[in-house]
Amino acid sequence: MKLRQRALGRNGLTVSAIGLGCMGMSEFYSGATERESIATIQHALERGVTLLDTADMYGPFKNEQLLGRALSGRRDGVVLATKFGNVRGADGAFLGINGRPEYVRDACDDSLRRLGLEHIDLYYQHRVDRSVPIEETVGAMAELVRAGKVRFLGLSEAAPATIRRAQRVHPIAALQTEYSLWSRDPEDEILRTVRELGIGFVAYSPLGRGFLTGRFRRFEDLPESDYRRMSPRFQGENFQKNLDLVERVREIASEKQVTASQLALAWVLAQGDDVVPIPGTAHVAHLEENLKALDLVLTAEDLARLDAVAPKGAAAGLRYPERAMAAVNG
Asked: How many whole angstroms separate alpha carbon 269 and alpha carbon 279?
């Protein structure tokens, strides 16, 4: 089965219009088992999803190993994206951001080993290392392309000026940044920049870390170990304010006889043919729900109504704790 396709960049990288974010299968969220996660990945491939997204820091390291097991004997047609730059120890400790060329080379080799692959299709710098010129980092990434270890390059949470400098070193296929009905910051300048440069846009957390699904009604619905308990948007008064936003989205979804998730994903898809959302899930049922968003066509009136109920800046609270926010838009 083949899903609708979208191009990322101008150099031949084509992926399914919806990808699969795999982070929550190994860390940060709760409730995922390896067996169900692998079944979800393999079901996604059978349904025509070609873009799978991971990073070396997820787990840490466990998520790439999981993808390696899930893809055993199933490599054809898969666009495997992984990331480097957020450094973690084996004990899970966060050790900072590293964009030094020697680290780039070592991180790629480590990812290839964990994934059990000969090449990475799309290799992102996860966060920009402000202490290293982007030209040096992307220069090292370009060496990986020439060595056949990587096919295409990407950046994540990079500022417009950084993107422009990187593009002058080597073509950037995709920029990955948070984008959803409650995280519309890319509309300020990022989307205009990547479109001018011919770079695709990969939207992570297109369902607002699950909040836009409507499945969370109280803070206590989040498991004790869930990362989202530390997210400002899930805390205190912000939770209720954001729940009110979700309720307005749910009302429109109900009128259209779809779920809030499907409406939120359809909105992201409607922002341009160069935008590819990568909702994360470890459950086949949720994957199927998400894929049905591809069948939902939003009219100009629908989009105007959603703009009215979820305008830019409507979400209450920062999207990350302050310390983590310092690493975005680098």
From this structure: 12
